[in-house]
Design a protein that fits this description.
The complex is a heterodimer of chains A (127) and B (214). With 127 residues, chain A is mostly helical. Chain A has helices spanning 2-10, 12-23, 38-58, 67-71, 73-106. In chain A, 64% of the residues lie in helices and 0% in strands. Chain B is of the alpha+beta class and 214 residues long. Chain B is flat. The chains are: A mainly alpha (127), B alpha+beta (214).
């Protein structure tokens, strides 16, 4: 079931339909507009996911993302895990930087006072 | 060129069989008759919850001739399984976590493979083995816990939903025009429970796909 849904979601037909539905309010993906079935919600998740992946493929967002990866469900799942790790790392780093900035703002006397030190920590996931 | 793209889209649409997602119903054919399962509405879900609760409390009160409870809730059943038969469900749950970690580690290894990497197939095989092992363990755990009160109450909930959400296709003539329509297969849950053909099982399978994506 999941395999069939993913095949539909990554097809040109439904990707085009999804892109059009974002811009035109009268384009509908399904006959029903509420009480979605589980295959329908799963389909929506995959349509959006593949849409993002196709966009990132065009902009060469990640060295490991290729058309063959998108084609192959197992490799695609693996890539999505890698992508999640990468994003988690980015946001963790961003929050860390914000925390450091907040401390500096709240305690200006500590700025370069010798009592605090900032060290660079490599939080990147293991290759 | 534009036309060709449109033709290709139409062709792809036909070969894709989008009936899985086109609406919130799933169709199936049994003995040359078309059936469908549909999504329950809020009222039906509320009624199904009442059926589940009633089953739960009925089973909870059932006692044998010595006054001991016949059925156990899953937490108590887990304890009994471990004590009486050495079947450790908690250890199985931990094993599931270990397999999940293995799956993540192996998948991350696969994610770094270039398209021409010769290890791709062997890593994919490894992932498939982990998935199969997890599935086996999940089936085994649910087999052991199938007799618990919670699981039986949940089953009653789904049986009720299947009994009201399965419909049979029929045709009728209105103003000399043949009109297709659907009607309930089982007028009541009792009729559903009495049906000893394979139809209730088939309907349950399709409903599970529609409602839980299994």
């Amino acid at each position: 079931m999941e395999e069939k849904i993913r095949k539909l979601a990554k097809s040109i037909y439904f990707q085009n339909l999804y892109n059009n539905s974002k811009e035109l309010s009268n384009v509908q993906m399904f006959e029903n507009v509420s009480n979605f079935s589980t295959p329908q919600t799963s389909f929506l998740y995959w349509v959006v996911t593949y849409n993002i992946l196709y966009q990132e493929l065009q902009t060469h967002e990640d060295e490991y993302l290729t058309a063959k990866v998108i084609e192959d469900d197992v490799r695609c799942d693996a890539y999505l895990l890698h992508r999640k790790n990468k994003h988690d790392f980015f946001w963790k780093n961003r929050r860390l930087e914000e925390a450091v900035e907040n401390v500096k703002r709240k305690h200006p006397q500590l700025k370069g006072g010798g009592k605090t030190s900032v060290c660079k920590v490599d939080l990147r996931p293991e290759k | 060129m534009e036309n060709l793209e449109l033709v290709m889209q139409e062709f792809e649409k036909d070969t894709l069989n989008p009936e899985l997602i086109v609406d919130n119903k799933l169709h199936f054919i049994h003995d040359n008759v078309t059936y469908r399962v549909r999504m329950p509405n809020q009222q039906e879900l509320a009624q199904a919850s009442r059926v589940r609760n009633r089953t739960f409390y009925t089973l909870l009160r059932e006692k044998d001739e010595n006054g001991n409870p016949i059925y156990l809730v899953s937490s108590k059943l887990k304890e009994l399984l471990k004590e009486a038969q050495g079947i450790d469900i908690e250890a199985m749950e931990k094993e599931l976590d270990v397999l999940k970690d293995k799956y993540i580690k192996t998948s991350l290894e696969l994610s770094k493979c270039r398209d021409d990497d010769t290890r791709i197939d062997s890593i994919k095989d490894k992932i498939q083995k982990i998935k199969t092992e997890r599935q086996k363990l999940i089936f085994l755990m649910s087999d052991h816990l199938a007799l618990s009160i919670d699981v039986q109450a949940r089953d009653a909930y789904y049986r009720y939903l299947v009994s009201i959400c399965t419909e049979r296709y029929f045709e009728e003539i209105k103003d000399e025009i043949t009109v297709g329509n659907y009607c309930r297969v089982w007028p009541s849950i009792i009729d559903y429970e009495k049906d000893d053909t394979v139809l209730p099982g088939l309907a349950m399978m399709r409903f599970t796909e529609l409602y839980m994506n299994v």
